[in-house]
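Suppose you are handed only these lines of text.
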Amino acid sequence: MPIQFTDQKQEFNKRTSNTGHRSLPHSISQSSTDSYGSVCSDSSEDGSSPRDKPRRTSKGLSDFCIKNIKQAEFGRREIIIAQQEMPALMILRKGAGGEKPLAGAQVVGCTHITAQTAVLIETLSVLGAQCRWAACNIFSTQNAVAAALAEGGTPVFAWRGESEDDFWWCIDRCVGAETWQPNMIMDDGGDLTHWIHKKHPSLFKNIKGIVEESVTGIYRLYQMSKAGRLCVPAINVNDSVTKQKFDNLYCCKESILDGLKRTTDIMFGGKQVVVCGYGEVGKGCCAALKALGAVVYVTEVDPICALQACMDGFRVNKLSEVARQVDMVVTCTGNCNKSVVRREHLDRMKDGCILCNMGHSIISFLVLHISFRHDNHSILIISDEYVASLHLPTFDAHLSEVTDEQAKYLGISKHGPFKPNDYR
Ligand SMILES: NC(=O)c1ccc[n+]([C@@H]2O[C@H](COP(=O)([O-])OP(=O)(O)OC[C@H]3O[C@@H](n4cnc5c(N)ncnc54)[C@H](O)[C@@H]3O)[C@@H](O)[C@H]2O)c1
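From them, the structure of the protein bound to nicotinamide-adenine-dinucleotide can be written out as follows.
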């Protein structure tokens, strides 16, 4: 189905009502923004909308909208610390030696606004690009960082705790400047791209391309492409090796613990945890939980990933087999929301069992009754997956099965192959 803006709005409402906020950042844990907010909040955070307030930087600029420009100094210190953690971007800045290889690039961006993305945005500017930026997530913006960006001259439209209306207003202010037109889009989730598509389609005449970071955004772009509505080239950053093998694995390895600790304050030692999905994110989560002494079970539909879990020392079970005993369920499948954790699983769970979703952000825990239908197919599978599946009985590993709905969602056959060739 082609992208429907109204559907996105409905999804938005669903998300806010189900989870209390629009979406959680991925590599950036909720907790890091929580702690940040408490450190740099001040009495000027009075709950009134930044849209209603006059604003000006110390140099007299007013083309931005953030919570509180007085926080700029604190935000700048955060950015300087982040620069130390991001040597690659800093090398690019140094390597340019004052030249402007990106001169002429007019980048409109919509990403999490954190110290790390500030380093990216300012690197683009140092290299000659003109940038305007909005937040892709209403709760991840670090207000002080947004203030530092604005004070540094970047037109930024974002604050923590935007309403839905604010969210689209900020995006529109980025896109719809009177004297400026973007020729590149940098997006995380596809909202900016689809706003331009819906509200300012004529801008695409100028736009040379889109860079998209998230699974969700990529999925939307593929849908647009299939419907013949993607009129500019797009770069799929999500599937790059450095994103998959580093961001998904190592960042989630850290943020799972950080997020759970701060939101639940539980001990992990001795807890029984089931991690659904042993892809990159699942591998990171399992390693982190195991390191803290949790007893970790894995569910998988792909025999290869299941075998990897076995070889890494995890028991592979169906969720129904372990639902009764676990203290925590962590979903990392990236699969459609309705059927990984089902009503029948919830019914079995202990009182107080924690449900945590590390998969992409449109997913929240929805409860549905689903009945499995086992077709009597004779299928000859020749693949690595078949070979891996032959090893699983040795580990007494019990493979999960994708439902028809899940298979359709992932664009795979119920019987495999479960991963594209380039996955390997
Ligand atoms: N929280 C974060 O910070 C963060 C960071 C990066 C990615 N993500 C998201 O996490 C999700 C997973 O990413 P990934 O890189 O690990 O993907 P992946 O494709 O490498 O792994 C997903 C795994 O889940 C398995 N799976 C699918 N359906 C299943 C089911 N019903 N039961 C059990 N297993 C099932 C697949 O076989 C696969 O091995 C994606 O939605 C991604 O966008 C989150």
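What can we learn from it? DSSP finds 16 helices and eleven strands in the chain. Confidence is low (pLDDT under 50) at residues 1-44, 362-382.
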